[in-house]
Amino acid sequence: MRKLAFLLLILPFLSFSQSMTNATLHELYTSVSDSINGKSGRWEFFVNQVPMLSVTDENHNRMRIISPITDANNLNDELIKAALVANFHTALDVKYAVSDGILWSVFIHPLKELTKEQVEDAVRQVYNANVNFGTTFNSTSLTFPGSINNKESREVVPEKTTMKFKKS
Fold first, then answer.
1. Sheet of 35-39: strands edge to edge?
2. Got the DSSP string for 123-153?
3. In 10 A of CB 126, how many CB atoms?
4. pLDDT tens, position by position, 27-64
5. Which residues face 37 on adjacent strands?
6. What residues contact 4, with CB distance under 8 A and at least 6 apart?
């Protein structure tokens, strides 16, 4: 009886486990991109002419989707502060980050646990964070309210850009 109760308790969790792989990512990236190059575990692709890269490590269960925005030397203190605030309020599942002298929009996640819908959403958010940098800084239309220097934060205008996936 205890074994049956145990199985009934863990069964729902087993049915929700994911198994995202490089092969599945390749199919997803191909279906949502204008063009794609690379090999399993490292892709370069374009979405509405915005460059993106994805790197995975199946052995360590990690992946990231990144998109270059600008040379970090182009950033003034106001833009840097706005990007940090956006990381908390409007960038949501993606973040703005600097590496190798470049400002990126970045999504980082465990690989296996991802669903197809989460990958598509991640690509959309990385794209939106890139094209909205310097204006709304949004990765989605959702915004978490807050304040900057004890001033009420302004209402963020919904993103003007939309990303349409190609039909596969």
1. 35-39, 42-47, 50-57, 62-71, 102-110, 95-99
2. HHHHHHHHHTTTTT--SSS-----EETTEEP
3. 28
4. 999 999 999 999 999 999 999 999 999 999 999 999 99
5. 44
6. none
CB under 8 Å to 51, separation ≥6 — which residues?
A: 44, 45, 67, 68
pLDDT-based confidence at 151, cuts 50/70/90?
Answer: very low
Give the pLDDT score at 40: 94
- List the single range of 17-26, 58-67, 82-91 with lowest mean pLDDT: 17-26
> Which is it for strands 102-110 and 95-99: parallel, antiparallel or unpaired?
antiparallel
Cβ atoms 104, 96 nearer than 8 A: yes
Phi, psi for residue 87 in degrees, rounded to 5: -55, -30
Q: How far apart are CA 72 and CA 89, in angstroms?
A: 21
Query: CA-CA distances (angstroms) from residue 131 to 16, 62, 94?
Result: 33, 25, 13
CA distance 35 to 138: 25
- In which residue are the tokens 């990765």 written? 139
What percent of the chain clears pLDDT 70, i.e. is strictly above it?
74
